[in-house]
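Box 4.2: Ligand-aware structure prediction
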Amino acid sequence: MVAVDGPSGSGKSSVCRAAADRLRTAYLDTGAMYRAATWSCLQAGVDLTDGAAVAAHVRSVPLVMGTDPHAATTAVGDVDVTEAVRSAEVTAAVSAVASVPAVRADLVLRQRALIDAACAVPAPGRRPGVVVEGRDITTVVAPQAPVRVLLTAREDVRLARRARQDLGSADSGAVAAVRDAVVQRDLVDSRTTDFLVAADGVVTLDSSDLDFEGTVVALLGIVEHVAAVPQ
Ligand SMILES: Nc1ncnc2c1ncn2[C@@H]1O[C@H](COP(=O)(O)OP(=O)(O)O)[C@@H](O)[C@H]1O
Ligand SMILES: Nc1ccn([C@H]2C[C@H](O)[C@@H](COP(=O)(O)OP(=O)(O)O)O2)c(=O)n1
């Protein structure tokens, strides 16, 4: 199993999905789970300032995660929310939901169950194992993972990537438009989870000066190195 944490725009989702594809394992986007929980709270009109109400609602949400790296879907029951959970509305609300301790306890258990399933019963054509990415995978969800990586990049680089991804441009106006949302969300999230400093035994991979392919290769290199060293 490969555990990857890091801030917004460091490349977790895209790099981990590609790495899982090349390793022929499953892929799990835990951020999408917090986003889907948030989407459902918004749909149900839950008061996001009421932690107990949020946790009670999230407990009832039937999250269905597609862990095939080619079809990393997110559903709530029968409703495919893969696209909907990326909306600006969900992005603006997700930190409030993710900061509720009972929500985290609930989703961490679900994440561990998905990890256990991917390691025990791989999908046809896949190897046992999973590349999991988020904010607390290396520290809370799977601190025992054989490969643990903190994927980072300088703030200016992350903002430019987010601007290009969200707005199709990384000029100064586009970067300014995403700055507040990204910096503010990372700040709030970092009060709940520690994804800015590598915990003991966690390898830091700085993608600032690497292109996408270079980052995937570097992550796979870390995986190979760990596989070559007896644990
Ligand atoms: N090393 C890299 N170099 C250039 N662009 C990258 C790199 N890693 C990721 N990207 C791009 O940056 C954007 C944000 O990456 P994403 O995987 O969504 O980050 P995160 O999941 O950490 O928020 C995507 O458009 C992705 O293709
Ligand atoms: N393991 C995790 C994963 C995500 N979160 C929270 C923090 C983030 O603001 C949201 C959304 O995560 P996501 O990885 O989709 O965020 P990005 O926009 O890709 O940076 O969920 C978390 O608290 N713990």
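In the box above, the bound molecule is adenosine-5'-diphosphate. Residues 59 and 106 are 7 Å apart (CA to CA).
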